[in-house]
C-alpha cells in the first residue's frame, strides 16, 4: 500500500524520536541502524527512504532532543531548573533526559554538523533560562553577568549528572555528587540574587 506524504512525515518523526531516545541511552555508537529501525517498527531497508546516512539521523535526533530540553526550561527560573535537573530521576532516566548531559562527550568526537546542533541547542537553553530569570535582558553589563552566571550554572549541572552516571548504580558517591552539586549551585544562585543593589542607609 502506498504511503501518503503525511504518513511518511509521521514515520520520519517517529524514527527521529526513537533514535533520540536510544542515542541518549546508549550513545551514538551504541545502536546501529538496523536495531534502531526495528525499535521504531520499521525494516532496515526503509531507513534510506528518510535519511541519507546515520550521521544525518544523529544530527536530526540531537536537534530534536536539544529542543525538548530548551522547551522544558521555558518559564522555569534557574533554581527550579536545577532542582529538576540535578536529581536522581534525571540521572536514572537517560532515555528521557537531557541530550546535553547524555551525549556531549560523544558529540565532541562527531562531525561539525552534530557539534553545530549542540551549540545551537545549548544557546537555546541559555536563552530560555535567561528569559525566565530576567526577561529580555539587555546586552549590557548586567545582561552579560546574567549570561555568565547561567553558563556556569548549566556547566555545573551537566557535570554533576555526568559524574554521577559514571559511578556504579547505587553507589553512595553517585548520590553524594548530586546532593553536593545541587546544594552548591542553589547557594550560588541565591547569593547572586542577594547581590542586587540596595538603598544605602543615611548616615547618623
UniProtKB/TrEMBL annotation:
User: Which SUPFAM superfamilies does the annotation name?
Assistant: Homeodomain-like (SSF46689), Tetracyclin repressor-like, C-terminal domain (SSF48498)
Alphabetical keyword list: DNA-binding, Transcription, Transcription regulation
Q: Which domain of life is it from?
A: Bacteria
Q: Which InterPro entries match?
A: Homeodomain-like_sf (IPR009057), HTH_TetR (IPR001647), Tet_transcr_reg_TetR-rel_C_sf (IPR036271)
Q: Where is the HTH tetR-type domain?
A: 9-69
- Residue spans binding DNA: 32-51
Q: Which GO terms describe its molecular function?
A: DNA binding
* Record Gene3D superfamilies: Homeodomain-like (1.10.10.60), Tetracycline Repressor, domain 2 (1.10.357.10)
Q: What is this protein called?
A: TetR family transcriptional regulator
Instruction: List the source organism.
Output: Streptomyces variegatus
